[in-house]
DNA sequence: GCGGATCAC
DNA sequence: TATGGTGATCCGC
């Protein structure tokens, strides 16, 4: 074969993958079954061709193709080697995972059907029979009529219009969706008071206890839940019922919309289910990983097994572990409120018309900093690291970060420390024009006043043999109260908005805050020092009684939050902050026990992400 | 630890 | 005319 046709073939092949990529990330969403994807792909391709976005996508696609070439080359090398040891390691891992299999829990994933569109339809019934979408330049979602034309979430508005010229575009009414989501959560809380919001329209529930208490089967319970939600909110939801969250999530997509699917909680049924399941159906496998897996011959989760000896070397240990769990159909069986997840960053970004003027760019940076300050104040965090993100007019994305001398959150500081990064980028890309700018703080430090047990990480542990002590009703009430506290106000009463103060006073406050922050970190570290600080049930009969070791004086303290806070206040006033920090540092150096890591939020590759307990975010959620 | 990349929603 | 915002994780260096 000559070189020319080969190159041509390659170009065609590359365009095929590009076209596939251009279809967007939500290809697996429902409503696309009877759509001629080739036709849709052609329209999208032609609508996009030549644009800067297209060119960038093309470049990315070429890079991925090269990356896949490298993967294949590596695989061919591995094939020549003796991988018996790798196969044995994989088999040992599988055996180990198998031992951890827990089929005792009934986990449910629920997902509102085309949620934003459904809410809009309630207000405007005439929309029911016409294709329409919600969102601005990019579709946030669209109804099922629109999906028949190939429209999808994440698609550019003008492309959607090409696919469906009659498409009606609606602006987002975020408050409306939030209110509706709240209605839904008020119902599902009765099925699991500790349900977990995955987003505004998705939630995980563990209904094991509900089924036991009401002597009802899981499928029947979920049918009842869906019926109840529909009757009371007029929203239809789809649900998946399975032994763990990963499977439940997959199952909720099986009979969408307005349907449910239950996967038996039996090993054989689960293995059989995974065997024929395309990898892309698993949460965490996106367009890229799907292509990479496909390239080596893995199309379904069942295919994973025969390639097990290659996976770690080709994709890394994390991906290996993830894939093994996919093959076995394993996932977490725990469900917990989103507020209990720990936030790791706060950021803001925005897109705008091409901008290259350095003065304008600095104005934009200042505005971005001011936006971020609002979010930092709202969430009560400072950041030890500040990250600047820019997207050039070519759609290329770059990030740069700094560690300011102190934790930051005030716009002035955010700006001051990010300007040099912007200047450096301007040097790096002379005449650069941006279409997006963003700022993000990471390595967060809490600014919450240290007067609650929650601050120290103490949570009332429900006595396991006393489920009534944490009855659904009381928890519901508490969680409803939480949701009303939507701005985190009331936790910072004695420290009003910084902006109200004159600069000098502000500085003073800041220094004080800095000290508090240092204290909080020290105590935080110490808290994680050992399990011994967690609440211990008192020996004896009174199981309800609990006590805590004060993290400052070390003495055991009473159980009520009020008493505990009073003690902490007393302790703090007796001992200066400096003393505490000193003492804590000493105790740390005495005790060489490694600080236990916080519970990880997700599993490998960001699977099973939770939503941080940020009010802004929480507003988006059921939880 | 940094920067790029991927992923979910 | 023209393709989002927020947050998380993983990998290679």
Commentary on this structure:
The structure is a single chain. This protein is of the alpha+beta class. It has helices at 3-22, 37-48, 52-80, 84-99, 115-123, 144-147, 157-163, 174-188, 208-214, 218-233, 245-252, 267-275, 287-296, 308-315, 317-328, 358-379, 411-428, 472-484, 503-527, 561-574, 577-590, 615-618, and strands at residues 107-112, 132-135, 139-142, 168-170, 196-199, 202-206, 237-242, 260-262, 345-355, 381-392, 397-402, 434-446, 536-537, 546-549, 556-557. The chain folds into 5 domains: 1-54 and 134-163, no CATH class; 84-101 and 266-328, Orthogonal Bundle (DNA polymerase, domain 1); 105-130 and 166-265 and 336-342 and 606-623, 2-Layer Sandwich (Alpha-Beta Plaits), CATH 3.30.70; 343-446, Dna Ligase, domain 1 (2-Layer Sandwich), CATH 3.30.1490; 470-597, no CATH class. Helix content is 47%, strand content 14%. It is globular, with a radius of gyration of 27 Å. The model is unreliable at 1-5, 457-508, 521-547, 558-562 and 567-623 (pLDDT under 50). It binds a DNA duplex (9 and 13 nucleotides) through helix 3, helix 7, helix 13, strand 9 and strand 11.
């Amino acid at each position: 074969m000559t070189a020319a046709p080969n190159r041509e073939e390659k170009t065609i092949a590359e365009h095929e993958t590009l076209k596939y990529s251009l279809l967007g990330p939500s290809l697996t969403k429902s409503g696309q079954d009877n759509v001629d994807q080739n036709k849709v792909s052609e329209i999208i391709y032609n609508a996009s061709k030549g644009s800067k976005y297209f060119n960038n996508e093309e470049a990315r696609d070429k890079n991925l193709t090269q990356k896949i070439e490298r993967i294949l080359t590596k695989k061919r090398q591995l094939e020549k080697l003796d991988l018996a040891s790798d196969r044995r390691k994989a088999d040992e891992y599988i055996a180990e995972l198998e031992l951890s299999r827990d089929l005792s829990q009934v986990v449910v994933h629920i997902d509102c059907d085309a949620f934003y569109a459904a809410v809009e339809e309630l207000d405007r019934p005439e929309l029911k029979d016409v294709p329409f979408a919600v969102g601005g330049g990019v579709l946030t979602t669209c109804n099922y009529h629109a999906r028949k034309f190939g429209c999808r979430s994440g698609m550019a508005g003008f492309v959607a219009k090409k696919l469906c010229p009659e498409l009606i575009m609606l602006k987002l009414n975020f408050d409306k969706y939030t209110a509706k989501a709240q209605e839904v959560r008020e119902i599902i809380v009765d099925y699991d008071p500790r349900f977990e919001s995955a987003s505004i329209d998705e939630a995980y529930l563990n209904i094991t206890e509900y089924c036991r208490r009401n002597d009802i089967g899981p499928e029947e319970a979920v049918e009842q839940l869906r019926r109840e939600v529909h009757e009371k909110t007029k929203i239809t939801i789809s649900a998946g019922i399975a032994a763990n969250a990963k499977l439940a999530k997959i199952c909720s997509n099986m009979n969408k919309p307005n349907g449910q699917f239950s996967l038996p909680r039996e090993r054989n049924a689960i293995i059989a289910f995974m065997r024929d399941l395309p990898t892309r159906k698993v949460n965490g496998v996106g367009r890229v990983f799907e292509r990479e897996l496909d390239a080596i011959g893995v199309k379904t989760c069942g295919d994973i097994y025969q390639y097990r000896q290659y996976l770690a070397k080709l994709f890394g240990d994390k991906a290996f572990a993830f894939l093994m769990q996919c093959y076995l159909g394993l996932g977490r069986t725990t469900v917990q409120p989103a507020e209990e997840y720990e936030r790791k960053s706060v950021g803001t970004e925005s897109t705008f018309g091409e901008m290259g003027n350095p003065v304008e760019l600095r104005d934009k940076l200042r505005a971005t900093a001011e936006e971020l300050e609002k979010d930092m104040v709202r969430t009560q965090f400072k950041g030890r690291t500040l990250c600047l993100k820019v997207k050039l007019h070519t759609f290329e994305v770059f990030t740069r970060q700094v560690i300011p001398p102190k934790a930051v959150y005030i716009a002035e500081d955010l700006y001051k420390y990010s300007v040099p990064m912007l200047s450096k980028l301007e040097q790096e890309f002379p005449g650069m024009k941006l279409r997006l700018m963003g700022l993000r703080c990471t390595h967060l430090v809490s600014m919450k006043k240290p007067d609650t047990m929650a601050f120290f990480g103490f949570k009332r542990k429900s006595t396991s043999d006393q489920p009534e002590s944490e009855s659904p009703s009381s928890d519901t009430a508490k969680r409803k109260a939480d949701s009303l506290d939507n701005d985190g106000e009331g936790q910072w009463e004695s420290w009003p908005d910084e902006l109200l103060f004159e600069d000098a006073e502000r500085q003073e406050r800041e220094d004080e805050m800095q000290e508090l922050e240092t204290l909080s970190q020290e105590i935080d570290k110490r808290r994680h020092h050992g399990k011994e600080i967690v609440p211990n049930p008192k020996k004896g009969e009174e199981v309800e009684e609990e006590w805590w070791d004060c993290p400052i004086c070390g003495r055991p303290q009473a159980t009520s939050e009020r008493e505990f806070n009073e003690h902490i206040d007393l302790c703090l006033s007796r001992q200066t902050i400096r003393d505490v920090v000193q003492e804590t540092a000493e105790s740390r150096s005495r005790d060489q026990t490694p600080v236990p890591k916080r519970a990880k939020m997700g599993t490998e590759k960001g699977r099973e992400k939770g939503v941080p307990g940020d009010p802004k975010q929480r507003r988006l959620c059921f939880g």
